[in-house]
Amino acid sequence: MEETKLFLITYFAAFLGVIPPGLVNMTVAKTCVERGKKNGIYVAVGAALVVLIQALIAVLLAKYIFDHPLVRRIFLRAGLVIFIILGIYFFIKAKSKKAIRPSAKKANANSILKGMLVAVLNVFPIPYFVAIAGAMNVNHEMTYDWSVSIAFALAACLGSFTTLYLYVFSFAKIEEKVESFAKYSNYFMAGLMLILIVITLIRMYNF
């Protein structure tokens, strides 16, 4: 019963957490218009697999992270460096004059690897799922044994994939505006990285 409750809560938390435009879902969207819908789905699958691992790590380390402020600061500093690098990357991509054309390339393992790589670079899911795990165990009565931990990780994986799958079909409708979408999505991602840098700095100096 506890596993079912935890699964549903985590599933919807993961589903809602991926809805706002971010690194992973924007990559899925860009892949759809540049390389086709199937490649977009493959990227979503790769990202969801990494989320599975991230959620499992998060639930196993939740108590440890909450009890050790130093570990929390290390996570924030690592995220700051990654956001700065990605911000520069997306800004340079947005300035590029290279034309982009829709492509019907076959879906392949490279798209799965791309999704996995992008998800690995996205460090937000770990603290997000740590917070969820902690919130569901405020009174310290829940014991995160393997069945509970696996249910938590699967729910996070499936919830994230559901939202990414919806992104595939939503953004597949803008193929006639590929160049504009690619350009402004890169600007958007650069701006998003700047916002995340500011948020991370605030959190580093206030926690």
TrEMBL record:
<keyword id="KW-1003">Cell membrane</keyword>
<protein>
    <submittedName>
        <fullName>Lysine transporter LysE</fullName>
    </submittedName>
</protein>
<dbReference type="Pfam" id="PF01810">
    <property type="entry name" value="LysE"/>
</dbReference>
<feature type="transmembrane region" description="Helical">
    <location>
        <begin position="40"/>
        <end position="62"/>
    </location>
</feature>
<feature type="transmembrane region" description="Helical">
    <location>
        <begin position="148"/>
        <end position="172"/>
    </location>
</feature>
<keyword id="KW-0812">Transmembrane</keyword>
<dbReference type="GO" id="GO:0015171">
    <property type="term" value="F:amino acid transmembrane transporter activity"/>
</dbReference>
<dbReference type="InterPro" id="IPR001123">
    <property type="entry name" value="LeuE-type"/>
</dbReference>
<feature type="transmembrane region" description="Helical">
    <location>
        <begin position="6"/>
        <end position="28"/>
    </location>
</feature>
<feature type="transmembrane region" description="Helical">
    <location>
        <begin position="74"/>
        <end position="92"/>
    </location>
</feature>
<keyword id="KW-1133">Transmembrane helix</keyword>
<feature type="transmembrane region" description="Helical">
    <location>
        <begin position="112"/>
        <end position="136"/>
    </location>
</feature>
<feature type="transmembrane region" description="Helical">
    <location>
        <begin position="184"/>
        <end position="205"/>
    </location>
</feature>
<dbReference type="GO" id="GO:0005886">
    <property type="term" value="C:plasma membrane"/>
</dbReference>
<keyword id="KW-0472">Membrane</keyword>
